Amino acid sequence: MQHIDHTPTASFKIVLVGDQSVGKTHLLHQYVQGTAPPHVQATLGVEFHAKTQMIEVFQTAESLQKVMIKMSFFDTAGEEKYHAVTACHYRNAKGAIIVYDVTNRQSFENVERWLNDARQLAAQDCVIMVLGNKTDVDLPQEMSLGDIHYTPPLRGKIPLQREVSLQEGLDLAKQHEVIFFEVSALQNVNIDRAMKVMSEKLYEQFLIMRMRRLDQIMAQEITEQQQGVKLRGNRSQSRFECCISSGRHDGEGQQQRCC
Ligand SMILES: Nc1nc2c(ncn2[C@@H]2O[C@H](COP(=O)(O)OP(=O)(O)OP(=O)(O)O)[C@@H](O)[C@H]2O)c(=O)[nH]1
Ligand SMILES: [Mg+2]
């Protein structure tokens, strides 16, 4: 039987951003707790959640290894007045999840702004994922599946309707080279899949950065060794020039004691 080590090998800080009411808190609750949050209320400042996740990585071309990683989420408030606070949370973040609402075009148009923040404020190796939430509005207006009866979500008294197409989301993701999924936090659709891709990318980036650091350390050691050899080499060269090749003598015919 394969032994699985459940101690997290790596830990990542991830910030969740996006306009107000796009569903960031619902999304995170579905992923971490497997349910909707107990109360529907706007996030004040920031909320923290953590989850360990098992991922599979290729150790060699043939063998897959199971690795446990820990993800610490910073669920931020989308309300404009918290923007400055949200910006602070990018410090040391290895991942950023930008959420928009497919029924709210403005929230999609603001994704560029959230992307700019992430690019400017997070680490250079930060993994970015964009999620278009509330795809459940695509379901038929009234639906009954056995015992389950589905009534469409409303904005006021009007059923919510999609304002951003899947293609627009895909185009934006391609243009900005970010991971992209459409999801429904309410119906728990595609969230685990999106988070799996995100966590694997985070771990891949972690390995790349570790390799780079090792390369830098090795390159530095080699440079230091070479400099050491050069210094020693220079010293022996000056000794050589001074005592032997110059053959300088003082005025009284004595060799100078320079070395
Ligand atoms: N139809 C539908 N409604 C959703 C979905 N996710 C969230 N909502 C609704 O959207 C509203 C806002 O959800 P939140 O999770 O509080 O949104 P938020 O982005 O955390 O909002 P702030 O904390 O204010 O930034 C709530 O009324 C939710 O019920 C979804 O997938 N589908
Ligand atoms: Mg919230």
TrEMBL record:
Matching entries from SUPFAM superfamilies are given as:
P-loop containing nucleoside triphosphate hydrolases (SSF52540)
InterPro entries found in the cross-reference section: P-loop_NTPase, Rab_GTPases_membrane_traffic, Small_GTP-bd, Small_GTPase
Q: Name one Pfam family in it.
A: Ras
Q: By its UniProt entry, which PROSITE patterns does this protein fall under?
A: RAB, RAS, RHO
GO molecular function, one example? Answer: GTPase activity
The record, for PANTHER family, names: DRAB11-RELATED (PTHR47979)
Q: Which NCBIfam families did the record assign?
A: small_GTP
- Similarity comment text for this entry: Belongs to the small GTPase superfamily. Rab family.
What is the designated name of this protein? Uncharacterized protein
